[in-house]
């Protein structure tokens, strides 16, 4: 120690107030960072909760849509089957009517009687290969 320092008892510490201010700033910044991190974690958790809720809602809606698709598919299959039966009946009845008209023409020719023979409806086959009356 120098003589001067011995006289004063100790060296004056001019840096202590600066260190205290820096320590105080550092402490406040660390506290602020902790609070900011906590808010960030809370926001992140809330966002995750919102996403999980939305995912559950979408899964529920997806299940409902799948049910509706299944029911609609079943209905379509039933209607297609009924339509096939009706188409087969159209073909069968048209053949019967042609046969009956042929019999009436023979009776008309043999007996010489005028018989009212109904016109055959024109059957057209649409693109789905199902018969329909032509217009």
TrEMBL record:
UniProt keywords, alphabetically: DNA-binding, Nucleus, Transcription, Transcription regulation
Locations listed in the record: Nucleus
Bias-annotated ranges (Polar residues): 1-10
Annotated SUPFAM superfamilies: Leucine zipper domain (SSF57959)
Domain of life: Eukaryota
Domain BZIP: 23-74
InterPro entries named among the record's database cross-references: bZIP, bZIP_plant_GBF1, bZIP_sf
SMART domains per record: BRLZ (SM00338)
Name assigned to this protein: BZIP transcription factor 53
Species name: Vitis vinifera (Grape)
């Amino acid at each position: 120690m120098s003589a001067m320092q011995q006289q004063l008892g100790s060296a004056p510490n001019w840096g202590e107030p600066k260190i205290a201010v820096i320590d105080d700033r550092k402490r406040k910044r660390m506290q602020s960072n902790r609070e900011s991190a906590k808010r960030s974690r809370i926001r992140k958790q809330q966002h995750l909760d919102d996403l999980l809720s939305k995912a559950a809602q979408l899964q529920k809606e997806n299940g409902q849509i799948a049910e509706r698709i299944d029911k609609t598919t079943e209905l379509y299959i039933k209607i297609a089957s009924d339509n096939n039966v009706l188409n087969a009946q159209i073909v069968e009845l048209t053949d019967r009517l042609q046969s009956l008209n042929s019999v009436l023409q023979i009776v008309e020719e043999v007996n010489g009687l005028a018989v009212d023979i109904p016109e055959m409806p024109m059957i057209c086959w649409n693109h789905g290969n199902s018969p329909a009356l032509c217009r």
